[in-house]
Specification:
single chain, 654 residues, mainly alpha, 3% strand, membrane, transmembrane helix, transmembrane, DUF6541, DUF6541 family protein
């Protein structure tokens, strides 16, 4: 498959991520940049809620049912908006057309640049992410397609009947399944294209709205934001390669738009495009979308939003005092602080987050180096992004001088400090701060661009204004027709050139690491193209209702996603039943062990697939499957297909 063939998959993915939320946003009263940028957040909330409701009441997840469910959600929102339109409309005015066009058309270069980075970084549309977590995500999509159940409330068990159905954020998986259902593409292709759309379209749109709320109706700033949003390695490219953390990528792509809503709530937006009334309507959808995408995004929103929210509350409290209602202002401020601290204390002690809070990653660098990486956008040993970092630091300096925007400095310092704690310290006493991101430096580093993008844009815009002022104050000014807009454009172009296309090759290399970069690795390959072709081929030789026994560490867990045949072990590390554990230890003795045949029949296991053992040789969990290996000439197994060490057997003993 080539990338031109994959365009319909990208279009379908973008359609699902944009259209439902765009219709809902228009009915709520959003227009222009706000409507388009909030659309993915609303779409994630709509699709995830519909999936959860369908799973609860027993409605099959399909293309038709998802369309109907989304349509019903949009219509209901329209009816509610019609009833409340007098209250929610407020005094917010839409942007002039040039401002809207600058923001939206400015996203087009980002789409093109992002598409090229995705194509070069992934190599092929069907290229696999050769990572531990990717196995779970591929299998989760395959489970949704097979079971017709896309509910996040039960996804954690991957359909294992002996494992309690647990919550796992399924927003990303829901959209990948819809992409497959809409186009007939394979699971890996849909996974890559949905994630590519998040990076090249959803993230730039989200950043444009945040910049619009911060800077106001500045056409140059809005026009450059989409492109500059792709110039940071930590996000989106780093998070698309590390882990692989696709659900986190979805959640974090929505965070800038969420902060834009918070700015409306706190009264800190410049020429507010959303309005406080609509912001209150949007707030529940923002929270639901963040939770269903990945709870990490909710904590990321909180870590940033606490600064503008308390800035707004503090200003309101002072206004109350100036109006002679100081007691009311003091009570409101005190209650806000108590509620925040109580919520933090609850999360910090709740058993629901214990496994997340106590996850340990060893520190790997000094504090000084970690601080330098934050300031140069070079986190986790990546290359320093000198050019954009200089303007980001200029932006930090300048926003400190603007009272309404000082919260940006506090938010940036907070996220930067959390990265430093994980990279250089990561002790038990730091977990109450960083634990909600698994104490993981990569996840925390990915939050920094949420703030770095608007700070960089602001730095370039303000630098253009200062440069014009300096030139006009000279004894013989020679600006000609080149005013502030022209100087800002020239500065932006110089940044793009000096950074060699916003570090284009660096972004490609970052993304490629766990895709094409692992094809020749002795310890990092789950399934090379030959294995993938074999796993796809065996679909014609295994009945649809048969379960295939496998050792997930040899890449055969991918059979479910590649061949649409359920495997006994769809991931390397989730809870297995006693029957599954027995087969993992004794399946090869099927001809002589009656217990094996009993479990085989109960679990509907009919075949055994053998892959190549090349992934994570040093991981001790690989030894948990001693009974699943090539039976050779042992009785009870009939060779059906083979390609070198790759083999498919039919279990005849049972």
């Amino acid at each position: 498959m080539n990338w031109l063939d994959a365009v319909p998959v990208a279009v379908a993915s973008a359609g699902w991520l944009i259209v439902p939320g765009l219709l809902m946003g228009l009915l709520i009263g959003l227009r222009g940049i706000a409507a388009w940028a909030i659309a993915p957040t609303l779409s994630v909330a709509i699709v995830s809620i519909v999936a959860a409701v369908f799973g609860k009441v027993g409605i099959d997840w399909s293309l038709g049912s998802a369309l109907v469910g989304a349509a019903v959600a949009v219509v209901l929102t329209g009816l509610v908006a019609l009833v409340l339109r007098g209250r929610s409309r407020g005094t917010v005015r839409s942007d002039p057309r040039p401002v809207t066009l600058a923001g939206l058309l400015g996203v087009l270069p980002a789409v093109l640049l992002g598409a090229v980075i995705v194509a070069m970084g992934m190599g092929r549309p069907e290229e696999l992410s050769q990572t531990f977590d990717a196995v779970f995500h591929y299998s989760a999509v395959a489970y949704i397609l097979d079971s017709h159940n896309a509910s996040s409330l039960t996804l954690g068990a991957l359909g294992n009947p002996s494992t309690p159905a647990g919550f796992y954020p399924g927003g990303w998986h829901d959209f990948v399944s819809l992409s497959v259902l809409s186009t007939g593409s394979s699971v890996p292709v849909a996974a890559n294209l949905v994630t590519g759309v998040l990076a090249a379209l959803v993230w730039p749109l989200s950043c444009v709205l945040l910049v619009r709320q911060l800077i106001g109706r500045n056409t140059v700033a809005l026009a450059m934001t989409g492109l500059f949003s792709l110039g940071f390695s930590a996000f989106p490219w780093g998070l698309m390669a590390f882990g692989v953390l696709w659900p986190n990528t979805l959640g974090l792509a929505l965070v800038p738009a969420a902060i834009a809503v918070v700015l409306s709530l706190s009264g800190l937006a410049k020429d507010d495009l959303i309005g406080r009334g609509r912001a209150w309507v949007l707030a529940p959808f923002v929270l639901l979308a963040g939770g269903f995408a990945h709870p990490n995004s909710l904590f990321s929103i909180i870590a940033i939003a606490v600064w503008p929210l308390f800035t707004g509350i503090w200003r309101w409290s002072r206004r109350m005092r100036d109006e002679g209602r100081g007691r009311r202002g003091t009570i409101g401020l005190t209650v806000s602080i108590v509620v925040f601290l109580a919520g933090w204390a609850f999360v910090a002690t709740s058993s629901a987050f214990k496994n997340v809070r106590t996850f340990y990653w060893p520190p790997f660098e000094s504090t000084a180096r970690a601080v330098g990486e934050v300031l140069l956008n070079a986190t986790n040993g990546r290359s320093s992004l000198w050019v954009v970092s200089i303007f980001m630091l200029v932006g930090l300096f300048l926003v400190w001088r603007v009272r309404d925007q000082r919260w940006l400095v506090g938010a940036f310092a907070t996220v930067g400090m959390m990265f430093v704690l994980t990279a250089a310290n990561n002790r038990s006493y730091t977990q109450f701060i960083t634990g909600y991101w698994y104490n993981d430096s990569y996840r925390l580093a990915a939050i920094l661009p949420v703030l770095a993008v608007p700070l960089t844009v602001l730095g370039i815009v303000r630098a253009g204004e200062c440069l014009r002022k300096w030139l006009t104050e000279r004894p013989k000014p020679r600006l000609g027709r080149l005013g502030t807009v022209g100087l800002t454009v020239v500065l932006a172009l110089l940044v793009i050139v000096a950074s060699k296309g916003l570090y284009f090759r660096n972004q490609v290399a970052t993304l490629a690491f766990n895709y094409t970069g692992m094809e020749h690795s002795d310890d990092g390959t789950l399934a090379d193209p030959r294995e993938q072709a074999f796993y796809t081929r065996i679909a014609a030789k295994v009945p649809q209702d048969a379960v295939v026994a496998n050792n997930p560490w040899d890449g055969s867990a991918l059979v479910w996603a590649l061949a649409d045949r359920q495997v006994l072990f769809p991931h390397m590390d989730i809870a297995w039943s006693s029957q599954q554990k027995y087969l993992a230890e004794h399946l090869v003795n099927a001809a002589t062990d009656p217990t094996v045949c009993r479990d085989v029949r109960q679990l509907h296991v009919g075949y055994l697939v053998i892959g190549e053992q090349r992934f994570w040789h040093g991981d001790g969990r690989r030894a948990s499957y001693p009974g699943i290996h090539d039976p050779g000439t042992k009785p009870g197994f009939q060779l059906v297909d083979s390609d070198g060490d790759l083999k498919l057997y039919k279990i005849t003993a049972c």
